[in-house]
Amino acid sequence: MSTDEHARLMRANQANWDARTPVHLASRFYGLDQDLDPARWFAPFEWADLGDLAGRDVLHLQCHLGTETIALARRGARAVGLDFSAASVTAARDLAAKAGADIDYVEANVYDAVAALGRERFDVVYTGKGALCYLPDLERWAGVVAELLRPGGLLYIVEFHPLLNSLGPKPAPGEGPELLLLHDYLGGGGPVHRDATRTYTDGPAVEGATDSFEWMHGIGDVVTALTEAGLTVQRLRESDELPWQRWPQMVRTPSGWWRLPEPRIPLLYGLLATRRTGVVPSR
């Protein structure tokens, strides 16, 4: 698929996320009408892997409403959020202002992040939890990340496991509790087109732009793209917990997240990588 075709599909996604934003703002899923608790979207291992963020320049790519960006700022980071949805960026700025968080938000496609951010470079780039599936070209993305990082800087991805993305959604009424493999685990099969008035949250129906496109990326695809862009993978974790109850049979864990009672399968992964010094990123 050509770069022009990728751009066309990403414009459709951009319109879809603009349309999703008011739905998500009104949802119980995000709970924005309650006391804002952005740290609930972080697993304990994330903070352990990220380390001390005080005084560090942190970029949150594909930040949507910026809830995780606020949590990073509350850890002392000088935080910047970037998203291609104008509606999401506007909402994120409002939420940060209400939370008293000093965060810069930039409206830009992730592939245009270097130009949008100018000379700004970062100690940490953070991304994930449903972000990479909206990117058609991982190699190009990895090159952007490498260029945004200072030498020795950290990339931290916390992303839904490809196995989770391969499983079917929450069973429909009358269906059994079995988890079925319905989608590819491995990438390379082209975009998956969805036309839906409902997103992963509760709330009202999406109005207007209901088309979206997603790409599957196996963990091997992610690791290969990063290493070829000059990053070194330092740590890879697989977790059997999610921050919300995707299936009815999931049980609450001591962390407040959710796990399948059986079988124990990976639902989330955390990947820590560093930009090697002396490497000139190429995109």
From TrEMBL:
GO terms for biological process: methylation. Keywords: Methyltransferase, Transferase. It comes from the Bacteria. SUPFAM superfamilies: S-adenosyl-L-methionine-dependent methyltransferases. Residues 59-155 form the Methyltransferase type domain. The keyword tRNA-binding does not apply. One of its GO terms (molecular function) is methyltransferase activity. The keyword Endoplasmic reticulum does not apply. This is Class I SAM-dependent methyltransferase.
